[in-house]
Amino acid sequence: MKVLKKILIALLIIIAIPLIVALFVRKDYSVKRAVIINKPQAEVFNYIKYLKNQNNYSKWATMDPNMIKTYTGTDATVGFISAWDSKDEDVGKGAQEIKKITEGSRIDYELRFIKPFESTEHAYMITEAASPAQTKVTWGFEGSMAYPTNITMLFMDFDKMIGADLATGLDKLKTVMETQP
Predict the structure, then answer these.
(1) Rg, C-alpha atoms of the chain
(2) Quick one: pLDDT at residue 13?
(3) Span 7-32, pLDDT tens digits
(4) Which residues 6+ apart lie within 8 Å of 143 measured at CB?
(5) Which of 21, 56, 68, 70 has its CA 20 to 30 A from that of 5?
């Protein structure tokens, strides 16, 4: 009986430690990357405000050529929704909605992931004139993880994971924009 009691206490401690640690681990994360595009700000903004154009530069939009994409509403306006459904677990199922547009400078999105996990996150794209013929584009992603799953933040480098995909997309956006007449 003493052995069983010791095993039970050890199990409780093993379970309690991560739960206690999770109380002190941050819950929010923010990742952003930027690129300079050799095109005027208005031209760049008028391209990126169309959510369908992400099919031309977003790494996530090109990960599964067989994914099913559906659209609801009028592109480049608040309320437009781009949804995807993929059998590839790295792509999953979800939707992205334009939530706010600050004409000429910023677009805010809500990302709703359904599979392989449920989550709602915020993303944005900002354009700033670097010069009359150059635009700085910043693509950002913000999210949070609820307690106690936030303990995974100790082991996951969101800046590295998501940041690399944002950078890949921005580099492709730069190529797309700079090769257009």
Answers:
(1) 21
(2) 85
(3) 888 888 888 888 787 788 888 889 99
(4) 28, 29, 119, 121, 122, 158
(5) 21
How far is residue 61's CA from residue 71's CA, in Å, rounded to a whole number?
14
CA 128/CA 30 separation, integer angstroms: 20
Burial annotation 142-157 (CB, 10 A radius, 16+ → b, else e): ebebeeeebbebeeee
Residue the block writes with tokens 């206490």: 9
Closest CA to 160 of 174, 147, 145, 141: 141
State pLDDT tens for residues 102-156: 999 999 999 999 998 888 999 999 999 999 999 999 999 988 888 888 788 777 7
What CA–CA distance (Å, rounded) separates 97 from 79? Answer: 6
- What backbone torsions phi and psi does residue 86 show, to the nearest 5 degrees? -135, 145
CATH placement of domain 27-179: 3.30.530.20
Helix, coil or strand: residue 115: strand
- Rounded to whole angstroms, how far apart are CA atoms 72 and 60? 19
Q: Would you kindly state where each structural domain of the chain is located, as residue ranges?
A: 27-179
Beta strands in the chain (DSSP E): 28-37, 68-72, 81-85, 93-102, 106-115, 119-131, 134-144
Mean pLDDT across the chain, nearest whole number?
92
d(CA 40, CA 9): 65
